Amino acid sequence: xxxxxxxxxxxxxxxxxxxxxxxxxxxxxxxxxxxxxxxxxxxxxxxxxxxxxxxxxxxxxxxxxxxxxxxxxxxxxxxxxxxxxxxxxxxxxxxxxxxxxxxxxxxxxxxxxxxxxxxxxxxxxxxxxxxxxxxxxxxxxxxxxxxxxxxxxxxxxxxxxxxxxxxxxxxxxxxxxxxxxxxxxxxxxxxxxxxxxxxxxxxxxxxxxxxxxxxxxxxxxxxxxxxxxxxxxxxxxxxxxxxxxxxxxxxxxxxxxxxxxxxxxxxxxxxxxxxxxxxxxxxxxxxxxxxxxxxxxxxxxxxxxxxxxxxxxxxxxxxxxxxxxxxxxxxxxxxxxxxxxxxxxxxxxxxxxxxxxxxxxxxxxxxxxxxxxxxxxxxxxxxxxxxxxxx
Length: 391
Description:
Elements lengths: L1 E9 L3 H13 L5 E4 L16 E2 L10 H20 L3 E2 L3 E5 L4 H13 L6 E4 H7 L7 E5 L3 E3 L1 H14 L3 E3 L2 E8 L6 E7 L7 E12 L5 H10 L11 E11 L8 E4 L11 E4 L5 E4 L3 E2 L19 H8 L11 E12 L8 E6 L4 E6 L5 H18 L5
Parallel strand pairs: 1-2, 1-12, 2-9, 5-14, 12-20
Antiparallel strand pairs: 3-8, 4-8, 5-7, 6-7, 10-11, 11-12, 13-16, 13-17, 13-18, 15-16, 19-20
């Protein structure tokens, strides 16, 4: 099967779905195809996160992460209200122990510089009244943080995108991508039902490729670069990071999200307590570095090793001393892409252009990708229009 479309989006995670919805609205005369290698949408990175709507506290001011998170949070709460997606604005408590107060102050200063104006400083007694099970000397209260049913959200995005005419191809794996000889279109060679016998190979030609392939996104960008398509910036180095979660069985000890101050090495936000829409508590994620030569989604190990429980317990007890370690049970794990380098690493949006076609690659879209998804979709729609990437 061979066909042509104006826009082809690879990857039907939360960002790919949000972009498909937005472009089908803002470019109604353009045909849009959405390609996903799993048998349903949102089964990759988007299905294995904490489902937190972030306020935008930690990211470098004026970075894409900061700007899209703050804007995306407002858009996401409004979207959930409009389309009846389950959401709860339960708030987050960031807690500091003795000696960590300066770190807490830097977090508050950074949040204000990024446009988060409603953080509240708390002393030990206020923390005790808000979260009696928590031990801390100081804290920050973020009333804008919440939780969402990410799967309902993604199904809602899909429903709207398809109502606007977006074509969806599931169980379809991208094998090759290259420019046509004319330079006016990109050609994608794909295999449908690629895990089964009798798989079918097809080709799609498009004027604009949007690469939202998550763990496979850098590989797609590199293939086009090797085919001679120049990029507007150097492709970043990407590593894969595994985050493990442990569920806390029995009665939930918190009513809000509880976060320690971030890992001082910059690896993550620390093992924190999150709640799901049913009120269940889990702790995580940690940061487990994966092998540098790992480059195939077929070899992913998404199991949670029970031996990590002791490390989890040590970190959790710093702010939750009454932790019953026997109630910690392995839950699930996710793998995210992270741009490598010194200091803060932002989302990377890399463009490649030929005479009549273009590609946009979304690289290193880790947290706060879920929160930022609608704002990211708006950002791309404006970029496509301003740069006339569709001619």
